[in-house]
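Problem: given the chain below (319 residues), write out its structure.
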Amino acid sequence: MKVIFAGTPEFAAVALQSLHQAGFEIPLVLTQPDRPAGRGMHLQPSAVKQFATAHGIEVLQPLSLRTDSKDPQRAEEAKAAHARLLATDYDVMVVAAYGLILPRATLDIKPCLNIHGSLLPRWRGAAPIHRAIEAGDDETGVTIMQMEEGLDTGPMLLIERVTIGAQDNTGMLHDKLAALGAKMIVQALQKMQQGKLEAVPQPEAGVTYAAKISKEEAALDFSQSALEVGLKIRAFNPFPGAHGSINGVIVKLWGAEAMEADSAAPAGQIIAADAQHGIIVACGDGGSLRLTELQKPGGKRLPAAEFIKGFPLEGLRFA
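Solution.
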């Protein structure tokens, strides 16, 4: 079976590697254009491009696949990409976190399967892992679906569940789901080869949308409950990194745990910041949150006990 692969970040690269190791022929890979990254803001290839290049697989990086784009350059690149797809001998396209919309013209060439990091129809959209943690979900998973024009609306082909641990953050859960999705897409294609892959329509009930994460969301509001603030810290680790402001200094918070003890202190007030108690902050529901890992501007992530040695917090308050 010949597979065209479309994806961009590490989540997708894990699946591409799995398909390659399973022996599927991959004549072409689609990924987003190189982006500036790092302190020098030099152009960096995506994780998918790095794997494809290292294994001699042809890479195509159009700005868009929509031939009707109003941007002439994007439209021309999309036409060239469409012509390349039509000229390629393949059986199926696998898509994982590609980041570009696949138009009807692309979907109509050959079957397109998508690796989606949620239990559809819950958390359709761009950031299903972040939103599942932020919402306090007990479980999530991976759905292999057949793509159609709607946003993650296509029929389901395979689905597997994963428990969200009490301390799981987005980085941890991402790695679990990436590995699971990589295993499942190989299974799905093997079933397709055997004519045993069955499509099941998504249920109409339970649809939610996982909007793209914005950096503006990372500012914490300690007037929320300790549970809500703690979930947000876990959800935004490693990106974009939840933060609070102390005397005008932005402090990133990478780890926290809600405490059972109630507090009468105003929301955001640091109740304790010492070696015995750790860093404890009052929240809006009368609850409190113990911060376990913090980072000041230009510094490293540090455990709470180490952080307060160079950044005394006792008596201060998060704005």
